[in-house]
């Protein structure tokens, strides 16, 4: 007998294009022998490989970066359960989470085909207009102290702002003649309105810069908030001692909002359909304010220049959700590394419950209230030509000569760090002092200390005193200068001269995002084998292979790295790394970000966009263009003309109001008499099939809807009854193992969530929290889902976790409302029934499966639906949904059903048909009885 095979197509996304192979527990992947692993094929965007395995085999594997040394992934084995004919897998470097899409033989539509598309052909053009919003302008303005009444001197002194990336990007836009408007603070306090206008006109006309003027008090309060609150949060710092815990008040948050509002006003005043690029965490609320004030559809991108914190750290920030909603008002969100993007995605899932997935082209997308927000990972680069150009200038050669003469005969290790705790300076100095003691030639650490734009007010003086004390101790003990501290931000020429004359560069930061200094070091020393020792916590540590990575918390590790830094093995990949830096320039980074931003822009041809909510938590919601209120007249016309009709309804929240009371009491779920009478009359029509499809158990439905010819689907369709006088049929055998595991986990959450309870059904377990405080209950539910996803991994093929309004349920994987509707439609077709009218009504996430099922049946022209049939999928309220229509509430649904009932009872022809035709349900019953008899005869 021929063994069935699963075909697995794998895409692997890595930050830098190198050579990889896949090694696993099969012959075709080397049986864990790297020499026989399957090499991945390189494309423009990722690596690919196609493999085949026996069906139901569990494939375990790792990715291996080839080279000397070989680098394995540093977490547990990846696993794929080969239980489908075709499996598509997407993996990311540094993340153990896989995106897996299944396709079975004979399936009409692969999951991949339902993924959103991103228009890859769209690119950024130099003719596009941009508004670039950063807290600081790329230029700095000061008042000329020599300016007088004779006007012999310029009133304003204008210079480029110091920094590695912003002034370089500014120069690039000038060189390429890009139409860009810069918005930011000019670097001075200016209260006189006439001077503000004068300076604005000057900067706009000469530099395309629009200055933001802030009062001294507002600026101080704002920077203090960024320094003491946001900076530690975004760098994953939580202080436990009372003297270091920042004092946070609502007034500080209002200050932050005020500054962001001022920046948004500046964008509004200058907006003329440009692309908008907003930069870094000081302006995280600006997207929200801009979206509120400008009614046009905006193309907004946000790039975070810092790390993004873990979900556990970010959630302690009181306004965490407001920040997430504002950032998600953008079309594109950029991060330096996948680690930061991953933390952002996990935080979005935990705090506001939004999911992410990939587009057909492999773009990472967040599903946010009907919109697809793209997430881009791309490290900022340096401009090699700019660096090489400066290295030909007389100033550079003069600096080189000066450095060479001053430190002649010494091995100079340089360091560039900001004066803050995260730089790891104290351990760095101690480790270098120890290294110097062991070397007769007494190497020198030339340490530059720059003032950070953001730092804690309480830490700078203490840190400075501590650093100088360590320096004095080491130098005194050695009898000469071993560590030289220089508190200044060197010019580019001076920086490159120091790099060229140094022997190595050393970094020991605890956390850093932009480390462009090390890219510059490779370019300045191109062709030379000079060591780069960098903290494994630095943002670029995973990108460059020839860097020597150290643990910044271990002085012994730092000492060993210094002692072995000239080992030739460290430089085997240096040429490759240098070429990578040359290729991934700042220009390419900016162009790629802007190209993705254009690709991610909103589509007004297909979607309608509306603002939902007030204040900080306003959301930009997208609804399909053809989404509208269900028209009763159109519904009635189709209903009258139809030969056979199918209707599927959710129960709570749809036919009856969703109840806050404990739903274990059956009376709270009972429908009103008027609704029961209406359903009873509609169900009598022999041309109608009507089902209540709900997550409720059988006993609840039996007590509420004991109506002739009314179908019931309990527990999402695990149990089905076609009429009150028929038996329940079970659609599967369900394991007790995962039910017991889920019950144990949910029970622990119930004990610490006041007002919640555990609901046990025959084949599922539910965490009900409708009676809880809404915010706390939602918080606990998100935590529970995260826990269940992890702890139920061994049963991933048997069960799934779903979230609804006020509940979290663990249920059998292949049982949901969508599959149930498909099953019922198929059963009717096999009994010879083809429908001309289909109505599906529901209100929460579980009902989306019904909407999708009916849409697919309609689009694929399934044989259970006639060629001229009309399908009506309807949700409650205007919201992102798979449904085509909406109604406002349960009362309006009853009105529509009353209209259908009224026509059915009064139509003479329909009345005759009731008595002359066999009811659809009776046809189904007869067919089932015949099948039972056949089985018995066999």
From TrEMBL:
InterPro entries: Carb-bd-like_fold, CBM20, Glyco_trans_20, HAD-like_sf, HAD-SF_hydro_IIB, HAD_sf, Ig-like_fold, Trehalose_PPase. Residues 1-104 form the CBM20 domain. One of its GO terms (cellular component) is cytosol. GO terms for biological process: trehalose biosynthetic process. It comes from the Eukaryota. GO terms for molecular function: starch binding; trehalose-phosphatase activity. In the N-terminal section; belongs to the glycosyltransferase 20 family. In the C-terminal section; belongs to the trehalose phosphatase family. This is CBM20 domain-containing protein. It comes from Stentor coeruleus.
């Amino acid at each position: 007998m021929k063994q069935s095979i699963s075909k697995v197509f794998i895409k692997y996304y890595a930050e830098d294009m190198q050579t990889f192979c896949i090694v696993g527990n099969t012959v075709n992947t080397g049986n864990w022998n790297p020499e026989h692993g399957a090499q991945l094929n390189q494309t423009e965007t990722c690596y690919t490989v196609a493999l085949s395995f026996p069906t139901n085999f569990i494939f375990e594997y790792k990715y291996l970066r080839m080279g000397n040394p070989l680098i394995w992934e540093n977490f547990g084995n990846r696993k794929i359960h080969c239980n489908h004919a075709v499996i598509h897998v997407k993996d990311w470097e540094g993340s153990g989470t896989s995106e897996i899409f299944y396709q079975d033989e004979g399936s009409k539509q692969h999951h991949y085909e339902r993924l959103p598309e991103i228009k890859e052909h769209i690119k950024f053009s130099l003719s596009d207009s941009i508004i670039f919003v950063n807290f600081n302008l790329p230029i700095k303005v000061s008042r000329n102290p020599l300016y007088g009444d004779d006007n012999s001197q310029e009133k304003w002194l204008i210079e480029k702002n110091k920094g590695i990336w912003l002034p370089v990007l500014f120069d690039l836009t000038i060189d390429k003649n890009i139409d860009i408007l810069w918005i930011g603070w000019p670097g001075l306090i200016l209260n006189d309105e006439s001077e503000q206008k004068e300076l604005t006109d000057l900067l706009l006309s000469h530099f395309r810069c629009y200055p933001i003027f802030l009062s001294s008090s507002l600026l101080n309060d704002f920077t203090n908030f960024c320094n003491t609150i946001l900076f530690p949060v975004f760098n994953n710092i939580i202080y436990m001692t009372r003297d270091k815990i920042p004092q946070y008040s609502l007034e500080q948050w209002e200050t932050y909002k005020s500054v962001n509002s001022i920046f948004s006003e500046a964008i509004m005043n200058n907006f003329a359909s440009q692309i908008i690029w907003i930069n870094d965490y000081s302006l995280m609320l600006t997207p929200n304010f801009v979206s509120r004030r400008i009614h046009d559809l905006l193309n907004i991108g946000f790039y975070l220049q810092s790390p993004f914190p873990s979900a556990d750290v970010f959630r302690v920030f009181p306004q965490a959700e407001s920040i997430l909603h504002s950032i998600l008002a953008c079309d594109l969100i950029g991060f330096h590394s996948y680690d930061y993007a991953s933390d952002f995605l996990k935080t979005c899932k935990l705090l506001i419950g939004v999911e992410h997935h990939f587009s057909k082209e492999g773009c990472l997308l967040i599903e946010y209230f009907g919109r697809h927000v793209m997430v881009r990972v791309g490290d900022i680069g340096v401009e090699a030509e700019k660096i090489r150009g400066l290295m030909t200038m007389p100033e550079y050669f003069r600096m080189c000569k000066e450095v060479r003469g001053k430190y002649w005969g010494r091995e100079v290790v340089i360091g560039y760090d900001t004066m803050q705790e995260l730089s790891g300076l104290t351990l760095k100095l101690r480790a270098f002092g120890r290294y110097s003691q062991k070397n007769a030639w007494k190497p020198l650490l030339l340490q530059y200390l720059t003032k950070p734009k953001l730092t804690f007010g309480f830490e700078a003086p203490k840190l400075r005193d501590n650093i100088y004390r360590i320096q004095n101790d080491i130098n005194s003990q050695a009898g000469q200068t071993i560590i030289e501290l220089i508190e200044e931000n060197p010019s580019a020429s001076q920086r490159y001269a120091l790099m060229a004359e140094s022997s190595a560069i050393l970094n020991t930061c605890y956390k850093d995002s932009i480390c462009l200094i090390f890219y510059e070091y490779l370019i300045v020393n191109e062709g030379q084998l000079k060591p780069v020792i960098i903290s494994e916590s630095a943002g670029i540590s995973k990108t460059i292979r020839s860097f020597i990575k150290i643990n910044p918390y271990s002085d012994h590790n730092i000492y060993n790295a210094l002692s072995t830094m000239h080992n030739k093995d460290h430089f085997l990949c240096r040429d490759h790394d240098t070429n990578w830096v040359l290729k991934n320039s700042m220009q390419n980074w900016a162009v790629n970000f802007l190209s993705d931003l254009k690709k991610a822009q909103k589509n007004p041809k297909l979607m309608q966009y509306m603002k939902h909510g007030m204040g900080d938590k306003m959301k930009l919601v997208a609804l399909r263009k053809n989404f509208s209120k269900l028209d009763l007249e159109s519904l009635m016309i189709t209903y009258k003309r139809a030969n056979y009709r199918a209707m599927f309804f959710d129960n709570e929240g749809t036919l009856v109001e969703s109840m806050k009371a404990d739903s274990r009491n059956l009376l709270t779920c009972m429908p009103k008499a008027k609704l029961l009478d209406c359903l009873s009359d509609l169900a009598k029509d022999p041309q109608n099939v009507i089902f209540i499809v709900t997550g409720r158990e059988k006993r609840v439905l039996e007590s509420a809807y004991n109506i002739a010819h009314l179908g019931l689907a309990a527990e999402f369709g695990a149990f089905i009854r076609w009429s009150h006088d028929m038996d329940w049929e079970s659609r599967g055998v369900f394991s007790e193992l995962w039910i017991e595991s889920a019950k144990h986990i949910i029970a622990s959450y119930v004990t610490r969530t006041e007002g919640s309870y555990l609901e046990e059904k025959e084949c599922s377990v539910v965490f009900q929290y409708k009676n809880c405080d809404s915010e706390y209950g939602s918080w606990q539910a998100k935590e529970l889902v995260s826990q269940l996803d992890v702890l139920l991994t061994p049963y991933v093929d048997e069960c799934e976790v779903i979230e609804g309004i006020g509940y979290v349920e663990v249920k059998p994987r292949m049982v949901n409302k969508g599959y149930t509707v498909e099953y019922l439609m198929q059963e009717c077709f096999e009994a010879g029934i083809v429908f001309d009218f289909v109505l599906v009504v529901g209100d929460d996430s579980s009902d989306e499966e019904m909407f999708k099922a009916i849409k697919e049946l309609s689009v694929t022209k399934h044989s259970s639906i006639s060629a001229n049939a009309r399908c009506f999928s309807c949700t409650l309220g205007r919201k992102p949904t798979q449904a085509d229509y909406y109604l406002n509430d349960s009362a309006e649904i009853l009105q529509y059903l009353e209209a259908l009932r009224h026509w059915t009872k009064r139509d003479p022809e329909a009345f005759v048909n009731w008595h002359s035709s066999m009811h659809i349900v009776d046809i189904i019953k007869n067919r089932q009885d015949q099948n039972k008899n056949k089985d018995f005869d066999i």
